[in-house]
Amino acid sequence: MGFGTPRFLAVMESLASTPNSNRKCYTRKLCLNGPPDWAGPGGRGLLAFPGWCMRPEDAVSEDKQKVSWAGAVGIQVGAEEAGMRLDQLLARRFEESSRAWLQKLIREGRVEVEGQPPPAPSTRLREGEVVRVAYYESSELPPERVGDIPPLQPLYEDEDILVIDKEAGLVCHPGAGERRVTVSDMACAHCGSVLPSPPGEARPGIVHRLDRETSGVMILAKTIPAMRALQRQFHDREVQKEYLAIVFGEPRFFSDWITAPLERDPKRPERIRVAPKDGRAAETYYEVRERFRDFTFLLCRPKTGRTHQIRVHLDSVHHSIVGDRVYRSRKVQGIRLPEEAPVPGRQALHAGRLELAHPVTGERMAWEAPLPEDMRLFLDWLRENRAIPEEKRRGR
Catalytic annotation on 211? Predict the structure, then answer.
């Protein structure tokens, strides 16, 4: 049974209407996006079915918790995968997820093989079998969060994606006990509909994150196929990101790479640190845009996308970001500014540019967000009060 052949599609279709001992009859409804969209690069064999739904009255099985099949992903077992364990197949196809998390999906009844719940994660698969995974969920704005949601001003929007210029101070998605308005809240209110979210995670639309005090370009997914395709691009490092930062000190070179593995600080879990050994690989390129006395305006291009990567890397070479309350090298603590200096009240880090392939059309697209006012005012002040000779100011 070839992937994408009528038989494969017929099997997927039949899963929506064939009852079994553990669930009632499901119905397949086409979502607003129309027919199924293929997902996954290079013919890896992932098919996203955004319209797979089940009626609310049929949602609860006898021995499994309620499962939403909105966003089910269909996988056909290839010849080289025959005999492979189910959890191994899922780990191969969903590289961004841990084996433990995927096994949890199986135990919760969020995975089916040929329309039947598998006995165990160790179930061996046969060539041509179709595996259905309820990997994504559809999330909407909870009733308690509906209220005075400020309007969203998109940089770009179509049926699949939403690109915004995030303001500093905005959290991307709700956390435990989070009551403030988040980017997810604003996106849900703006779209007026449900947005996709990974299972068990209340972060509708969020594909990647910016720190609360970081401003700039963010992309959100409006459909499940778009979310899957965008996550794959970020995972495979096919996305080009540019950040602008005002840092303490004056780098020796006009441009350089910072290559230092990162890990979570075991003593302070909210912090990231350069790993003494066995950390996660991380690389950041930077180049000087403008020099001042005791300060520098930098362009940064992270090759990897680790948590707090740019902040930690710059701090590790003693060029901490101005306004960063968490990462500040001791070597810059002696640099003082007068009270009238308009220092940003947050870390002076801005996601200025984002470039990637459109998740549906494949067209290469790029968006830019202008430097926010707080950073512009501080740069103007530095030009007037901390200027150095022109031949030393420019990094180009």
Answer: yes
